[in-house]
Amino acid sequence: MEVLKIATAGSVDDGKSTLIGRLLYDTKSLTDDKLEAIERTSKQKGYDYLDFSLATDGLVAEREQGITIDVAHIYFSTASKSYIIADTPGHVEYTRNMVTGASTSQAAIILIDARKGVIEQTNRHFFINNLLRIKDVIVAINKMDLVDFSEDAFNDIKADFEELMDKRDYQDQKITFIPVSALKGDNVVNRSQSMDWYKGQTLLEHLEELDLQDIYNVGTPRFPVQYVIRPKTEEFHDFRGFAGKVYGGELSVGDEVVVLPSMTRSKIKAIYFYDTEYQTAPRRSSVTITLEDEVNVSRGDMLVKVGDLPIVDKQLTATISWMDSNQLTVGGKYVLQHGVNKALAKVDAIDHKIHPDYSGIEENVSSLNMNDIAKVRLRLNKPIFYDRFKEHRTNGSFIIIDSRTNHTAGVGFIE
Amino acid sequence: MSTLAEEIKNPLTLTDAERPNANALEHEAIYILREVAAQFEKPVLLFSGGKDSITLVRLAQKAFWPAKIPFPLMHIDTGHNFPETIEFRDKLVEELGVELIVRNVQDSIDQGKVVEETGKYASRNMLQTTTLLDAIEEFKFDACIGGARRDEEKARAKERIFSVRDDFGQWDEKNQRPELFDMLNGQIEMGQNVRVFPISNWTELDVWSYIQKENIEIPSIYFAHKRNTFLRDGLIWSAEDGVVFRAEDEKVEERIVRFRTVGDMSCTAAVESYADTIDKVVSEIRDSKISERGARIDDKRSEAAMEKRKQQGYF
Description:
The complex is a heterodimer.
Chain A: E1 2-9, H1 16-26, H2 32-44, H3 60-65, E2 72-77, E3 81-87, H4 95-103, E4 107-113, H5 120-131, E5 136-142, H6 151-166, E6 174-179, H7 203-209, H8 212-215, E7 222-229, E8 241-245, E9 251-252, E10 256-260, E11 264-273, E12 276-278, E13 280-281, E14 286-291, E15 302-305, E16 311-322, E17 328-329, E18 333-338, E19 341-354, E20 361-362, E21 367-368, E22 373-386, E23 397-402, E24 407-414
Parallel strand pairs in A: 1-3, 1-4, 4-5, 5-6
Antiparallel strand pairs in A: 2-3, 7-8, 7-15, 8-14, 9-13, 10-11, 10-15, 11-12, 11-14, 16-22, 16-24, 17-21, 18-19, 18-23, 19-20, 19-22, 23-24
Chain B: H1 3-7, H2 21-39, E1 43-46, H3 51-64, E2 73-77, H4 83-96, E3 100-104, H5 105-110, H6 128-139, E4 143-145, E5 162-165, E6 193-196, H7 204-214, E7 225-232, E8 235-238, E9 253-259, E10 270-272, H8 278-287, H9 297-300, H10 305-311
Parallel strand pairs in B: 1-2, 1-4, 2-3, 4-6
Antiparallel strand pairs in B: 5-6, 7-8, 7-9, 9-10
Helix pairs in contact in B: 2-3, 7-8
């Protein structure tokens, strides 16, 4: 069965939790005891309908404030796919959670309240999904029941959204507009009886048809070495296996490879998954590779195919999304974690910062606050082996760790 | 290329056209376990004898083969375990040739660090936390691998894969590290430790399907068997071994039951079931309408039960 991970984004009160609850309810994914809890609590609160948002809003603080404050993961499945929804909050101060949710998702749902239309936050959600190059974005225009299921209202919002699209970098993004009422259940799983003018798919129909093959990004194979396996037993006396996950493309026995950073060449001798040998390791498989020659390989090194070298450099420019309460400052020193490799990084310059309303850029910036997004130049203490983010999602991204707090303070997408 | 290599087909089915659920999750879990071995000095795998921790052990075997699992297993023993679980645990450890550490809640009680609960709902489940935190300090473990899954419970849905705990074992849910792409940040200060959840993204059905596919042995109490039981609050409790408090008016009856989780006996209810093989269990779970933790009384204490326990350092 296929697993599809979806990031959701929406502002406070535009009904995101209700939409997810509705998906769970209409796909019969809520268990009896959970359904009972929802019915009981809805009744206690005096609602005359079921409050599906109770199915997802987890933490006590959230129930008190009635909002979602962190990334939560929700699971459901249909006959053809398993779904993981990364439910991320939409309010201004939590851009970082949205970036986090989007980084591991293959599709995104952006919610718009039909009464409010495209607002600043819609712009923010779309900007982030575009920055992270999420291939499939579904714009769910919700609360259609409160605008009399009007086709004009839907078309106006769609036109406003399309204006945003023109300004974005990643133009190949696929965007689908769906008019829904999460509360009443229109066009979420079941077709609406009130919007005959809408001929498209329901939200679930659309998700069911997404072609995952198309979604997972393809590039050249990269094999960052996580761990060296040396059993030192009599049976496997000379075994030196390089454990890691294959990204971007597949690797096969016999492939000529280069080990970075030493630039040593060798050939793949064997590929193991547990105690079985395989001819080929496909993308995203966690395998153990042995080489024909005795070469020195350790954690953080990378195997790539001869002729497919990444960029090897100590300097890089990246779009950084800052996630920490301590500012990023020009001249500041951090730990940069690129996959499983680490280097020390110094901030050389901040070229510009994206204006908070995404209307343009601000220059002459010397520091970044939490939720800022900016183009930053970094200098490292040693070369790393990277690709551009638009060519390689995994090998083109890194995190920044503040060594004073050990927090993950930011994420970067390499230009 | 050798003929042997040509003979080897490519049964790793993680291709784009066919991406089996359990497989993608398996590769993710192995990646996480390898990160633990690489990033930490003294990791430990928390082993309860339940299906989730048994699954973790299998994943760890796969992650490091042909080497042995490079960390010990640790069991926090409430003293109220199903005897079948303990037997199973000892056999498994012997087969794997790994070190097993056992720390007992009874010792924490005897040392006066915790006080045993009394009454109808008495359980040692909460008391485990103290014993666990003491053991982490005793052995200076910097990473504890656990079998928790995000689908189990609402507060767990927010848990990170690498979840940092302070000196007191506390979880600060408002100040969690963001986890981006595959990158796991295991940098910590002295005294802190990280709880690691490699099967975070698995559902109960994923675990059972994996056990089925891999033909993994699990304790017999997971399968339907005859047991003396009594009913309370609509749940079925074991009347054997004298661990669960039973009032005189709670009538003992023999039922055919199995357990969906094997926590402390005092807080783990049985379900009526005829599923006596792994295939039957998998189809039962597939059709099931009661979520797994519905049979755990410790979560029913209050709506925020799990979140409160986690803040205090529970698994």
